[in-house]
Amino acid sequence: xxxxxxxxxxxxxxxxxxxxxxxxxxxxxxxxxxxxxxxxxxxxxxxxxxxxxxxxxxxxxxxxxxxxxxxxxxxxxxxxxxxxxxxxxxxxxxxxxxxxxxxxxxxxxxxxxxxxxxxxxxxxxxxxxxxxxxxxxxxxxxxxxxxxxxxxxxxxxxxxxxxxxxxxxxxxxxxxxxxxxxxxxxxxxxxxxxxxxxxxxxxxxxxxxxxxxxxxxxxxxxxxxxxxxxxxxxxxxxxxxxxxxxxxxxxxxxxxxxxxxxxxxxxxxxxxxxxxxxxxxxxxxxxxxxxxxxxxxxxxxxxxxxxxxxxxxxxxxxxxxxxxxxxxxxxx
Amino acid sequence: xxxxxxxxxxxxxxxxxxxxxxxxxxxxxxxxxxxxxxxxxxxxxxxxxxxxxxxxxxxxxxxxxxxxxxxxxxxxxxxxxxxxxxxxxxxxxxxxxxxxxxxxxxxxxxxxxxxxxxxxxxxxxxxxxxxxxxxxxxxxxxxxxxxxxxxxxxxxxxxxxxxxxxxxxxxxxxxxxxxxxxxxxxxxxxxxxxxxxxxxxxxxxxxxxxxxxxxxxxxxxxxxxxxxxxxxxxxxxxxxxxxxxxxxxxxxxxxxxxxxxxxxxxxxxxxxxxxxxxxxxxxxxxxxxxxxxxxxxxxxxxxxxxxxxxxxxxxxxxxxxxxxxxxxxxxxxxxxxxxxxxxxxx
Lengths: 332, 346
Known about the structure:
By secondary structure, chain A is an alpha/beta fold. Chain A has helices at about 60-65, 90-95, 115-125, 135-145, 165-175, 195-210, 220-225, 245-250, 255-265, 305, and strands spanning about 10-20, 30-45, 50-55, 75-80, 85, 100-105, 180-185, 215-220, 230-235, 240-245, 315, 320-325.
C-alpha cells in the first residue's frame, strides 16, 4: 500500500510575533507584540509557484523567513514533505536547509563586499560539504553559466558588477546546493526595468529546467502575475484572498484585492473604469483593529466587519478561490 | 497678499486639460550638457538635451538608472556638486538659470521652481516640525508674517489631503507614515505656488494603493494650480497614466519624445520599444513572454562610438556603429534618434 501523497510545502496556522516597544516605562511592564504574521495557511505543490503579494508591513517577508526558520515562528506548522520544521531540532534541520534557499531583494546589501563572487557562489557547497576544494572551481563556473554570468569574472568583487549581475550572483548562490524550494523575496524590485524582465525570465527558465518550487514574495502584482501559478494576497498579517492566478486576476473578490489590482497604473488610452482610490494606509500591526483588518479602509465595510474577523473560506461557486470577507463571501 | 488656493475638486475632471496648451513654456531647456569630472576623466551625464514644459503640462522623463533624468532635474535646480559642469540653457519663465550665482539661485528655488524627491524622510528635516518646514519658504520668499504663514501652511496641508492639519503642523516627520510624508514634502514644494515642479520618482518608494493617492494628488494639483510638472520615473505605467508628453532618455541623451500615447503605442526607437516590451503591464500573464532587452546599460565613461544603444539593439547595422543618429521628426510632435526608426515595429 502506498502512503498518501504528502504536500511538498504546507504551512498551517503560522503565527510570528515580534516583541514591540515596551508597554510602559516600567521594566516589568512587558512588551507590546507586533503580530507580523497572524495565522497564515497555504500549500505549494512541488514544481509550482505561489505568489505572495501585499504592501509593506503586510508580513509577507516574515512569512518567507518563518518558512525557512530564519525567524522562529510563534506557533503553527511548516510542513516540508510532511516534516514540521518548527519542532525539528537544529541538528536535524541543518541537512534540510540545503534543500531550501532564499534570494534577497537587495543585491547590493546581500553580497559580502569583501569576498569574490566565486567564493560567494561556492561557499554553500563547502558549508554543506557538497564539493571538495578541487571540484569547487568547476562547480562555481557551471553555476555562473546557468544564471548567465561570465564564469571568467568569478575573481571579481561585487562592486564591479551591476545590480542585475549581482542579482544573478545571488541566484547562483541560492542554486549551489541544488535546492528544491526557493523563497524569492522581492527579487526584482531593486533592479532596472530592462533587467527586471531578464531576471524574471531567468527565474522561470530555471524553474522549468530544475523543477524548482518558488514562494515568490512581491509587492508588484504585475510580476506576480507573470511568474505564479497561484496567488495569495496578504494584509496586516493575514491572507485575505487566495486563488489560482488566472482566477484571481479575472475575478478578484476581496475588496482589498480589487483595490490593489485597480491601483496598478495603466495607460489613459486603455480606457476602463476610473480606479477606486483607497483612503488611508495599512494600519500598524502593533494595534491591529478588532474585526476585519481591512475594515478601516474598506469601501464595503459593515457593522459586522468591525466586530468579527472574517474566516478565509472557499467561494461557493469556485472552491479553489478562498476569500476572507463577510460581504463578498459570507460564511453562512 | 493672499495665496488662497481653492480646495481640490474631483479628480475625474482633470484629464480634460490634456490638449497641449499654447502658452509660453515655463521650462525651456536647450542643448543641455552636464559633465562630471572624475578620476577617469569627464563623464558626460547629459548630452545635448532639449526639453520644454508648458504651464499645466506634465512631461515624463523616463529611462533607467544612469540615463541622466535625475541629473537634468538637479541641473535645473542647480543642486549638482561643484565638479559638475553645466552648459547650455535652462530657461524658467524667460530667466536662464545656468549663469546665475548661488545667491541668485536661492531666490529661485522654492519660489519659481520646486522639487520633490523619492525619499521624503531624507528630504525633510527630522528636527523641525512639519509646520515650520512649510512656513519657512513662505516667510523667506514671500515675506509673510508668522501668523499669515501659519494660516497658509495649514491650508497647504489640507490641500494635499492631510487630515486635521492644524494639529499635525506641530508634529515631526517621523510621526507621519510614508504616504503622508510624501504629501508633506509636496506641500513644502507647493508653498510658494512654483511655476515649475520637478518630481523625481515621487511614488517609487510607496505602496501601490498609496501611489494611486499621490498620482491623483499630482493630477489634481496640475488642474488647480496650473504649474508645469516634470515627472521623472522609471515606471512606464505611471507615465502612461498621467503624462501628456514623454521624453525617453538613454545614456544622457533623448532617444525619443512625443505625446505619450503616440510614443507608447507607436514607438519609433528600438530602446523605447524594448523598454515597453520588458515592462510588465496590468494584463501580462504567463503565456505572453516578456521581451527583455539583452545586455546591460552602458558605462557612461566608456561609451561606444556611433549610436549609444547599438550594442544592445536588434536593428543595429554598420551605420549605427559609426555615426550617432540625429533626432528627426517621425510624426507630428514625435522625434526619434534612430537610423532605422521606420523599421521599429509597434
